[in-house]
Amino acid sequence: MNKQLKIALVAHDNRKADMVEWAEYNAEMLSQHKLICTGTTGRLIKEAFDRRGIDVEITCMNSGPMGGDAEIAALVVRHQIDLAVFLIDDLNPQPHEADIQMLLRQCRVHNVPIACNRYSADLMITSHLWDVDTYKPSEPRYIKFERE
What we know:
Blueprint (H helix, E strand, L loop, with lengths): L5 E6 L4 H10 L1 H4 L3 E4 L1 H13 L5 E4 L7 H10 L5 E5 L9 H13 L4 E2 L2 H8 L23
Parallel strand pairs: 1-2, 1-4, 2-3, 4-5
């Protein structure tokens, strides 16, 4: 991939092991980009990369419950995130559910691809469209639909 992306990585506690494993699997590709992570997720990925001698730029926000999801959502709104990977724990309630929904919503509203499982994350980061200069995703259109 020729373009350097700003990739947000977020994982709930019960999904952090999955995120670290995914990041290690994709370390060579991820090391070419700027990673913006919620606090603990970023620390765990950095530790895993350090153990393997992989140099990568990681910016850590607060942890999710302390506002990290909201900080990343703000970056999405300012068009400072190209791709988000958010491994959500769908089996347990989260105390910061409103922030989670806000991040997901802002990605949808601002047309930022967001992967919520490893398979979709793999498909998104390997897309050839990142390097096609002529490809411009269309902006979402919110037009009232009139039923007849």
